[in-house]
């Protein structure tokens, strides 16, 4: 159940919006001290108490590693008729499934003009500059449609030996090639015959998008 912004005390709404913005742009939730500074609190304790209130409301929770996870956006902030909730995930460590619960950092409403039902989607933060010619710079969020197949020319999220990579997909009868599209010419194509899985196809980079 979504909580109306009108039901939130103003300071809680400010805190929630700052946590969301920090997560989107910095790639992690703010620390208690960072939140206290953003809200002009003199004591981090005040920010910690505020976080606990948002946890009690079900808007935030804590992951196993102690980091905050954003669950909901107050309904007055978004048009639910035109959005669907999409999980923002980190890169899967040590072979953990990409969409495992412990990897989900937040649930973000995304316009159905981009995330078209009934397909399932996730958001992933790009690392490195191997796809910058495709508009996917380091740190940019990309919207990914979950699927296990791809066509030549698609930009895919692939899992290779427990490592996640974003590359352009090209297949022949015998091999699959994952090609970088970068101004950095040190990147080389990855030629594969097996031991990889497609996690999804990139729909669009979301640079410059406000959530």
Question: What is the percent of helical residues?
Answer: 10-25%
Fourth-tier CATH superfamily name of the largest domain = Umud Fragment, subunit A
| Outline type | elongated
Our Rg estimate from Cα atoms comes to 19 Å
Contiguous low-pLDDT stretches (5 residues minimum) are none
Task: Please describe the biggest sheet, giving its number of strands, its sense, and whether it closes into a barrel.
Answer: 9 strands, mixed
Query: Helical region count?
Result: 3
Domains (count): 2
Distance between the termini: 19 Å
CATH architectural type of the largest domain: Ribbon
Strand content: 25-35%
Lateral strand order in the biggest sheet: 4-3-5-6-11-7-8-9-10
How is the secondary structure organized here?
Elements: H1 10-26, H2 32-38, H3 44-56, E1 60-62, E2 68-70, E3 83-89, E4 104-111, E5 121-125, E6 141-146, E7 155-160, E8 163-171, E9 176-179, E10 190-192, E11 196-205
Parallel strand pairs: 3-5
Antiparallel strand pairs: 1-2, 3-4, 5-6, 6-11, 7-8, 7-11, 8-9, 9-10
Helix pairs in contact: 1-3, 2-3
Task: Tell me what the structure shows.
This protein has helices spanning 10-26, 32-38, 44-56, and strands at residues 60-62, 68-70, 83-89, 104-111, 121-125, 141-146, 155-160, 163-171, 176-179, 190-192, 196-205. It is elongated. A hairpin with a 4-residue loop joins strand 8 and strand 9. It is built from three helices and eleven strands. The protein is an alpha+beta fold and 211 residues long. Helix 2 (32-38) crosses helix 3 (44-56). The chain has two domains: 5-77, Arc Repressor Mutant, subunit A, CATH 1.10.10.10; 80-205, Umud Fragment, subunit A.
């Amino acid at each position: 159940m979504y909580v109306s912004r009108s039901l939130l005390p103003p300071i809680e709404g400010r805190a929630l919006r700052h946590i969301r913005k920090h997560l989107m742009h910095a790639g992690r939730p703010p620390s208690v001290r960072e939140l206290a500074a953003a809200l002009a609190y003199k004591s981090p304790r005040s920010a910690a108490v505020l976080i606990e209130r948002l946890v009690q409301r079900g808007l935030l929770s804590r992951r196993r590693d102690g980091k905050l996870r954003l669950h909901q956006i107050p309904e007055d902030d978004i048009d639910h008729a035109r959005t669907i909730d999409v999980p923002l995930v980190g890169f899967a460590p040590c072979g953990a499934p990409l969409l495992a619960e412990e990897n989900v950092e937040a649930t973000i409403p995304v316009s159905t003009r981009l995330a078209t039902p009934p397909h399932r989607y996730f958001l992933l933060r790009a690392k490195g500059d191997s796809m910058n010619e495709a508009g996917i710079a380091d740190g940019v969020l990309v919207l990914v449609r979950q699927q296990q197949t791809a066509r030549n020319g698609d930009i895919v999220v692939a899992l290779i030996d427990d490592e996640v990579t974003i590359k352009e997909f090209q297949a022949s009868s015998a091999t699959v090639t994952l090609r970088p599209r970068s101004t950095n010419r040190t990147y080389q194509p990855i030629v594969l015959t097996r031991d990889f899985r497609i996690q999804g196809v990139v729909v669009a980079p979301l640079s410059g998008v406000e959530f």
